[in-house]
Structures are given as C-alpha cells and as structure tokens.
C-alpha cells in the first residue's frame, strides 16, 4: 500500500493435544484401574499470520521474509497494491523471487469475503458519542450481496454478488488523495495522519457556510436544519481573516466525506443494497473519518442505511493475494478462527486516547487465524440465524458487568496457572510455561480494560476463549484431564444405583427426580469458583450433597409444570439434541439417566459434546468411552447405540460456552436428517452466558444452576438458584 506493507503467510504450528483411549481390559480386574488412558501427543495444525510493517521499514520486512518464509522451493511471491509496482525491483533483487502481481480489486474482495465468513465480530458501526465507539454487528450467514466503497486516492464503488461475481459500478476522483493533496496545499502539512489530527481539533463552522448563515435559521420548507452545511468553505469568500489550519482541515474532511457518503447512498439505493462496507487508507480505523462517513450515510439515507467498517480492513488485499496464491489448497473449504493469543486486536487510534505503541521494527499489528479441523455452520434449528446473538450480556456496553468480570478473571488467574502447572508434574518447564501463560493472559485483560472492543464485542465467552487460546499457546492443552478421568471413574461406579433408585419411582416422581439429577450434576463445574473451592476442600462432596444445594421450587426461572404437562399430554419427540456440559457426575448421573428416559419414550437422542477440551467440560472422545461403559451396564443405552437411536457427535467447539452459528457441519446434517424437534442446553456457560435468549424453530429446554453470586444477583436470585426454561415456538 501507500504507507504500509501487509504481509500474509501460512505456517504449520506444532502443539500438544490431550488424547484419551480405552485400556485393553480383556481378562483383567478393572475395578481399580483408571477408566481410560490419557496421552499427550504432538499435533500439527495450520495457521495464517498477517503482519503490518510501515513502508519505511520495507527492508526489515524483506529480511523477515528472507530469514523465515522463503525456502528453496519458493519461486514466486504474490503481491498486490501500489507497492507491488513501486517495490517490485527491490523485492525481486533482495529475495531472488519473481513478483507475481495480482489485481487489487479482486484481492480486496477475496479478502473481504474471507473475513466476513470466518471472523464473527468483524463488522462494526462507529458511534463517536456513545460509551463504546465500536458497535459490532451479528454475522449474517448470507454475506452477499454488499457494496464495497474503497476510499484510497480516489473512490471505487463495487457491488459484490457472490464469491467470484462483482462489478465496479462507479466511483469518484474526489477521495483520500484529494483530502491529502488539498490539505497539504491549505495547511502545508504533508503527512496524512497529521492532517487528520489537525482536523480532529478543528471547528468546521468557522469556515463553512451553514443553512442558518443563509436563511437566519432552519429552512423549514425543505426540512433542512440550521446547522447543516450549505456551502463548504463558503465563509472564506466573505470573511476578511486568516483561517486556522485545524478549521480548514476539518472543513475539507467534511466536504469529502459528505460527497462520498451521498454517492455511496445513491448507488446502494440504485442497486437495492442494504450493506455498505467502507475501506481504504482514508478509513484505516481513523475515528475522525469513520465519524464523518457515518454521519453522512445516516443523513443522506434518512437513517435507513448504516455505514459499516471492518476490524481487519487493512489486511483485505494481502489476504486476497494470499488466497489467490493458495488456490490449489482451497483455503475456503475450511473454517478458520481468530487466535486471540496471537492477535493484537483493534486499537482505538484516536490520537488523544491511546497513542499507538509501535516497536522499533515498524510492525505494530498482528492477526493470527487457526484452521479448524471441521467446517462450521449454523444450527438449522435457529429461528432466525441472521439475528441470533449467542451472548447474553455485552460487556462492551455494560461498564459495571465489564468491571466485575475482568476482575473476576484476574482473581482466578493464579489458580488457573497453578492448575496448569500441576497438570504436568513430569515436565521440567511446566512452572515456567505456566508463568508465561499467566503473564500473557494478564496483559490481554489489561488491554481489554483499556479497549474492550479490541476483539469485537467483549463477553464472558470471549474472556473464556482467550484464556483457552493462551493456555494452548503455552502447551497446556487440557489442564483438567486427570480430574475428569478420576471423576468419570467415580461417577460410573454410582450409575447403576442411581438408575435403580429412579426406576423404583412412579412416573411423575421420576420425571422430577430426573430433572433434579440433571441440575445437581450441573453443579460440578470447575470453572465456577464457588464450586471449585468446595470440590478442593471437600473431596467427599457428591451427587446427594449437590442436590441439597439446589434452590427449592419455585425456581428462579420455572416452567417445569409446562414441561411435565407436555410429557403427559403430547406425543414423544422425534429426536432430541442435547448439548452436554461437564464430565463426571454431570454427564454420567445427570445427563445419561435423562437420555435413557427419552429413549424409553421412543425419542431418538443426539448427544453433542465439545470437540476439544475446555475446563472440565466433557469432550467427544471422552463421551465415547463413557457411553461404551454405560452401555455395558444398561440394556436401554446398549440397544439404542446398536440401533443408532442414540448418536454421539462433536460440536466443533472447544469453548465452555456455545455459539450456535459456528457448529460442526456433521452435527447440522444429522439434526436435519433426524427431524430434530427438541433442543436441550444445559450448564451456565451454554445456557446462561450464551443462548439464554436464543430462539428456536422447535421446542427447547434450557437448564442451569447459577454458581456465581454476582450473576445470580443480576438475575434476581441467590447462588445455586435454578434456571429451568421450557420454550415452545410461537406458531
């Protein structure tokens, strides 16, 4: 680009993963053996890296490429943007490679499609005067069609209809270069950023002629307010005085932004498009230009169209050029996820708020994306995927909640680091790595205190996911693996007696006992401090003790009577999809008896567990072993497995929360095939922090025990209050 070089490259990352597998128990006494074997293996995964360098450090950038990214097989380097011409000879000479220039607009759109599809909180609207400058949008699964307004030296307006179909529909020669050029002539300031800084301090009304200057007030016949600009620079024709550089820069900024805004609105209306994304160096995260463009779009569309910006706008061209070069590997067939541990996040570049921290090398921004093992899609049962928001509380917006949860995660950090180190007693450097993890996550939390919007909307889910990413970066793939192994073994020994006791009850008593068991199981959550303190100090704390902790009915949210009525009066459900939460007592003594009852009613069950570890949540591979052992004890489970009426699937997630817009494709296919008509979500992370307000096309059951007193208080209850939400969609 004109002032920045953006570099995109692919690497393979070697990291540790925890694997579980059944012991061969043939002919052995298995009473005192662990339930399964845990091994830690090396796994190679793919990662995309994106780095920005200032062009003044182009030599440093090329040294980095030469030292780390070029091997003997590399013959060509893909390049796009103005620098692909300007630095072509330098790149070819220094790297000994042929520069293959790619079309700028094609790359830009490829990059744009890629981030829209893979980064949930990519798009934001800018609101200068609200508490949170950045208002992130929910990801509409249908990203097309949209209008891309690229404001570089001039303005290009492109209509994008599909992955490969786009057309340039218009533009203007009055763009970023005009602001820069005229600004330099007016203020003698040659640097773009300095010009913007002048504009941010200026008062355009000193230079511009307003409607009230012409008509003495508002022009009511046409509905024009008195403060509207009637003529940019209009006062300079009559005023006999010098204007300040700041005021002239501000007037110029308004003039060009208003022109671009009106143009964009007209094209959007002409082509019937609702989404307008703005990019190019004129925007580049500058609050001043985002504010003026937003105002202009809002004014000319009468509030019907919103100006939208992209968190990684500066990388679009580089991502597109990379994707062009990697076409034979088809990166688009995979889903990718932002790795919070290695990404620097969106900074407010407002000069007064956070001075940009740049290192000596001129790199000041990084984005890392990990290739996910499986493609992710929407849950087909969501009522409206385009309006689905996973998270219950937006911490970017709610300052009180933000302060509480950031402090909560800070206070828990030492314990998490200790647990991580203790999970690898045979490793020489576990303590050192745990300390590095602690430091890294602490720094992330401090960034988020200052800039809560850094990674999109800040939520409890994003705080938990960032912590998991940081643990993985320092090779702690599953700090709770030994705890889960032990708890699964203990719970399995109680399974038979729990089932016997349930079977001895009459039907109505049994339904209540099953729900109570499900809730009691949900108490066993090492992610909740109130519980982990009890579990560490009282090793004998078990299923019955957990039942006694539960709130008595009526519960905080209580639609149990409606659920019971549905079971009594209605036909059996065709198929239930259950999202499981914790290992041990939760899945074995809470979820499985409930599953068994559904199967007995003639309902098929899809049991969905996390693909990867997070806290003490049960993983798919652990659930396979647990189910096999339960089937050996229970004929109902055994025959359901055999007849494929009980199916175990993975969610595609490694989070203690649940985003139903990014689920394993195989799960979505199965849900459709089996005509699923009941969704059951259990646990605080999946049913309260996320999905509390999620609406489905079918019946749903959300149940959890609140194990955090602040959250309980927020919802109007006490610790160990119960949420039991049975919902039927409106016909």
Automatic annotation (TrEMBL):
Gene3D superfamilies: 3.30.420.40, 3.30.420.510, AF1104-like, Uncharacterised protein PF01937, DUF89, domain 2, Uncharacterised protein PF01937, DUF89, domain 3. Its cofactor is Ni(2+); Mn(2+). Its main location: cytoplasm. GO terms for cellular component: cytosol; nucleus. InterPro entries: ARMT-1-like_metal-bd_sf, ARMT1-like_metal-bd, At2g17340_3_helix_bundle, ATPase_NBD, PanK_long, Type_II_PanK. One of its GO terms (molecular function) is pantothenate kinase activity. It is found in: Cytoplasm. It catalyses: (R)-4'-phospho-S-sulfopantetheine + H2O = (R)-S-sulfopantetheine + phosphate; (R)-4'-phosphopantetheine + H2O = (R)-pantetheine + phosphate; (R)-4'-phosphopantetheine sulfonate + H2O = (R)-pantetheine sulfonate + phosphate. Keywords: Acetylation, ATP-binding, Coenzyme A biosynthesis, Cytoplasm, Hydrolase, Kinase, Manganese, Metal-binding, Nickel, Nitration, Nucleotide-binding, Phosphoprotein, Transferase. GO terms for biological process: coenzyme A biosynthetic process. It comes from the Eukaryota. Residues 408-717 form the Damage-control phosphatase ARMT1-like metal-binding domain. Homodimer. Interacts with PKM. Phosphatase which shows a preference for 4'-phosphopantetheine and its oxidatively damaged forms (sulfonate or S-sulfonate), providing strong indirect evidence that the phosphatase activity pre-empts damage in the coenzyme A (CoA) pathway. Hydrolyzing excess 4'-phosphopantetheine could constitute a directed overflow mechanism to prevent its oxidation to the S-sulfonate, sulfonate, or other forms. Hydrolyzing 4'-phosphopantetheine sulfonate or S-sulfonate would forestall their conversion to inactive forms of CoA and acyl carrier protein. In the N-terminal section; belongs to the type II pantothenate kinase family. NCBIfam families: panK_eukar. This is 4'-phosphopantetheine phosphatase. The lineage of its organism: Eukaryota, Metazoa, Chordata, Craniata, Vertebrata.
């Amino acid at each position: 680009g004109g002032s920045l070089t953006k570099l995109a490259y692919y690497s393979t990352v070697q990291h540790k993963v925890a694997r579980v597998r059944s012991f061969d128990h043939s002919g052995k006494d298995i009473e005192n053996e662990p339930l399964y074997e845990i091994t830690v293996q090396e796994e190679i995964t793919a990662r995309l890296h994106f780095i920005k360098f200032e062009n003044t450090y182009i030599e440093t950038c090329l040294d980095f490429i030469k030292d780390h990214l070029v091997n003997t097989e590399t013959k060509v380097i893909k390049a796009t943007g103005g620098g692909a011409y300007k630095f072509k000879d330098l790149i070819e000479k220094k790297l000994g490679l042929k520069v293959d220039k790619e079309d700028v607009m094609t790359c830009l759109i490829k990059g744009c499609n890629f981030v829209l599809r893979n980064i949930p909180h990519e798009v934001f609207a800018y609101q200068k005067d609200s508490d949170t400058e950045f208002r992130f949008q929910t990801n509409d699964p249908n990203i097309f069609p949209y209008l891309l307004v690229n404001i570089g030296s001039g303005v290009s307006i492109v209509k994008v209809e599909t992955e490969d179909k786009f057309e340039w529909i218009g533009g203007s020669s009055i763009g970023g270069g005009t602001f820069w050029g005229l600004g330099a002539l007016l203020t003698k300031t040659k640097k773009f950023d300095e010009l913007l800084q002048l504009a941010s301090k200026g008062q355009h009304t000193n230079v511009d002629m307003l409607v009230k200057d012409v008509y003495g007030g508002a022009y009511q016949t046409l509905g024009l307010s008195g403060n509207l600009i009637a003529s940019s620079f209009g006062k300079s024709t009559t005023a006999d005085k010098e204007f300040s550089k700041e005021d002239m820069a501000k007037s110029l900024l308004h003039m060009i932004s208003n022109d671009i805004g009106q143009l964009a609105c007209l094209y959007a209306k002409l082509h019937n498009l609702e989404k307008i994304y703005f990019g190019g160096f004129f925007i580049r995260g500058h609050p001043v230009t985002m504010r003026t463009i937003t105002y202009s779009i809002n004014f000319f569309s009468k509030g019907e169209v919103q100006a939208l910006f992209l968190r990684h706008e500066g990388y679009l061209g580089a991502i597109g050029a990379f994707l062009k070069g990697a076409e034979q590997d088809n990166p688009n067939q995979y889903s990718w996820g932002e790795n919070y541990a290695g990404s620097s996040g969106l900074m407010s570049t407002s000069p007064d708020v956070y001075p940009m921290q740049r290192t000596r090398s001129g790199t000041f921004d990084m984005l890392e994306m990990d290739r996910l093992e499986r493609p992710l899609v929407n849950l087909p049962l969501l009522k409206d995927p385009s309006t689905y928001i996973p998270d219950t509380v937006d911490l970017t917006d709610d300052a009180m909640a933000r302060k509480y949860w950031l402090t909560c995660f800070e206070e828990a950090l030492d314990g998490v680091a200790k647990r991580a180190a203790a999970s690898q007693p045979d490793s020489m450097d576990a303590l050192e790595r745990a300390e590095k993890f602690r430091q890294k996550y602490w720094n992330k939390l401090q960034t988020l205190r200052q800039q809560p919007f850094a990674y999109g909307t800040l939520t409890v889910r994003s705080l938990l996911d960032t912590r998991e990413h940081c643990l993985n970066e320092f090779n702690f793939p599953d700090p709770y693996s030994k705890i889960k192994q032990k708890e699964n073994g203990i719970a399995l020994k109680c399974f038979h007696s729990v089932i016997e006791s349930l079977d001895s009850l009459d039907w109505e008593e049994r339904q209540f006992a099953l729900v109570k068991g499900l809730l009691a199981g949900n108490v066993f959550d090492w992610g909740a401090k109130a519980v982990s303190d009890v579990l560490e100090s009282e090793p004998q704390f078990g299923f019955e003790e957990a039942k006694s902790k539960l709130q008595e009915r009526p519960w905080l949210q209580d639609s149990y009577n409606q659920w019971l009525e549905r079971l009594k009066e209605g036909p059996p459900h065709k198929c239930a999809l259950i999202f499981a939460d914790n290992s041990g007592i939760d899945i074995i003594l809470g979820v499985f008896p409930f599953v068994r009852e559904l199967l007995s009613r003639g309902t098929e069950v899809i049991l969905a567990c996390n693909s990867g570890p997070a806290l003490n949540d049960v993983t798919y591979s652990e659930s396979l072993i647990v189910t096999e052992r339960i089937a050996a004890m229970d004929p109902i489970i055994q025959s359901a497995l055999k007849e494929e009426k009980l199916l175990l699937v993975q969610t595609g997630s490694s989070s203690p929360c649940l985003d139903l817009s990014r689920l394993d494709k195989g799960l979505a296919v199965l849900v459709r095939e089996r005509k699923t008509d009941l969704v059951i979500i259990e646990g605080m992370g999946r049913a309260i922090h996320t999905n509390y307000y999620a609406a489905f096309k079918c019946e749903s059951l959300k149940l959890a025990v609140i194990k955090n007193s602040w959250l309980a208080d927020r919802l109007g209850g006490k610790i160990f209050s119960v949420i039991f939400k049975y919902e039927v969609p409106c016909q």
